[in-house]
Amino acid sequence: MTLSRRELLKTLAGTGAAVLTLPDALFAIPEGVAEAAETAEEWKKSPCRFCGVGCGALVGLRQGKVVAVKGDPEAPVNRGLLCIKGYSLPKILYGADRYRVPLLRQGNKFVQISWDQALDIMASKFKEAVQKHGPESVAMYFSGQTTIFEGYAINKLMKAGIGSNNIESNARLCMASAVTGFYSTFGMDEPMGCYDDFELTDTFFIWGSNFAEMHPILYSRMMERKHQDPNVKIVSLQTYLNRSTDEPADVVAIFKPHSDLAIANAMAHVIVKEGLTNGSFIQKYVTFKKGLTGIGYGVEDNFEYGGASESNWTTYRPFADKAHTISIEEYKAFLEPYTPEYAEKLSGVPADTIRQIARLLGEPKRKAVSCWTMGFNQHVRGTWINNLVYNLHLLTGKIAEPGNSPLSLTGQPSACGTTREVGVLSHALPGGMFVANPEHRKKAAHIWNVPVERISSRPGYHTMEMFRALDRGDIKVIWINTTNPFQTLPHVGRYRRGARKGGERFIVVSDVYPSETARHADLILPSAMWVEKEGMFGNTERRTQHWFKMVDPPGQARDDLWQIVELAKRLGSGNLFDYGEEPLQKALFEEYRKFGQGSGKDLASYDLYAKVRGGLRWPVVEGKETRWRYREGFDPYVKKGEGVRFYGQPDGRAVIWARPYEPPAEQPDEQYPFWLTTGRVLEHWHTGTITRRVLELHRAVPFAPVWINPEDAGVLGIKVGDQVRVRSRRGEIITTAQLGGRNTVPKGVVFVPFFDENVLINLVTLDAYDPISKQPDYKKCAVRIEKV
After folding, report:
1. pLDDT (average), residues 325-344
2. Which residues are catalytic?
3. 194 annotated binding-site participant
4. What is the pTM of this model?
5. Is 196 labeled as ligand-binding?
6. What is the 3-state secondary structure (H, E, C) of 123-168?
7. Would you say 687 is a known binding-site residue?
């Protein structure tokens, strides 16, 4: 049966669904677009622009349009497969409401203006704020969807041109705890393993990640491995039942929110008590440390974390954790209270299950891969729980070798390559360097050919404090690009109100479609997207991939790199991007890779990336990529005879941290008796700004429901399809009840995805954050629910 859009909406409405009312023309596809693959005149390579897996796509072109896409069979990541979002790539370009001209707010309306007018206004606002209030009064907020070229350029303009470190990426909301976890344990960011481990291991531990929906291509590789060898075991540790807990998971452990800290320590307790440690590995390659406890939750403005005092800014680890070295015996004593029985009381996971999974990980003949995403990172102790999973691999020696790897999975296509590696964060410089380190500033100033005094030594506002500063009026002007913070920020009601308080505040938004953030803008700049420009992304496994521009953007839309350079010219910093006759993208990349050369972050040349299909994993030395870091025979930075060297640390040793269980920032009580957790669904990308304009994806999941446990729903008289209010101390939303299907939540828990702007769940969430990483905790706050 074929339904028109109007008939579809009517049908969905009849089921009680809360459907967004969008104009019929929104889904219109221009003639000749998104037809059968065989109609393409030529095919070109590109990485997918959705998640951080880094799948390779072949893009079909005809008459200046993208008409088809298929998985690249030569791409080593996905081997010809794409997920449903990947197969929808052609249609994301052609929604009828694409921004095509710059728009300036006049009262409650937007009027069209020229690019020259838009850029002149933008530059004048930046100049005025800097002259009156100093460089700390302006800010830039970009994202892990930004290309490496764009990220490097805006970082250079902000830190070497304007002289402010108030630049952040939305990766602070999704990957910051992974970064601080890597640095505090290994002294360097990014995983030491790679996707090849999926075919080489025999035990998978999936922690707090709906792997099947969020990273489906990697999930398919895990399933293929499982089907090939019946000895392969999959352990899924989650806060609710989802597609990643379905068959063929061998062990499913559903734990109470925040109790993962206790479970990980209990697993370490069992491994130590039962003699499953790798003693020689620990003796050669590990040291033990204990940091501060009772570190707070960052809820208040201008929160000061005791481990990030002034004295720490001169070290090379930003927001460093104050710590002292302990002995292995002291570490064992720390683990004593964390018996499986104690962890069961906190988590609800049976003690015998905890012993079972600890023994699986510790079994000497087994290899182990651990994977996680936001369940670990969006956590008020996100750095700690990242440390604790590394502890398990270090205790057993199952790390930095084929089939043995802790692998933090990334949510955005270049959260690694652009944000973490390029350093588009308030504390960072390119190539794993930091503004707090005088030697790093000196090197950056030399490469950028600016006085070293131009680069501020003090980290700027991190994301949460940046938008609090905008609300307070400390930040006057902000440029928001490739992201949607007025839908994604926790406790977003405060920040939405702050954006429109007026005064000297001026908000510039570069976007492709109308969004909650664009609606709060003073100036909207129409941007090019994906293959409408040349770009590079860096994915989860340190793989850098390049693509060329293939089609023109609609109307007057321009790529973000052009916008950055044009702004720089008007600010008097155009010389930062004067490379003579050399192509700008190539010149930027060749300059950028100087930062990491010789430090274990080596990148290949621009020309090599432009030619190679599927990209390369850094460090790339003498044209050869590295699959496993820190291990002799695989990593060129580990010398013969060293075996393993964690060369990010001065002594070459990784750290096992004594990190305790501490309670969350907010817990259910009599007034707000339920846990709320948030996340995503397979069909939609983050805030849905792109994917909700693809008819098939919108039809599949047209709204964000609230999943409620059937027993809880029965007590409250709630049935499937009923309208339900979800309320916290910060705000409320109304949506439709769902009692099962792809998710089943435990008693006392509700789950709401965040892709739906009509179900703005971040009005409800709490803006507490990890004091070390500054990443907010979207996964737990207290709510009450009631039938409307």
Report:
1. 98
2. 85, 174-175, 374, 411-412
3. no
4. 0.95
5. no
6. HHHHHHHHHHHCHHHEEEEECCCCCHHHHHHHHHHHHHHHCCCCEE
7. yes
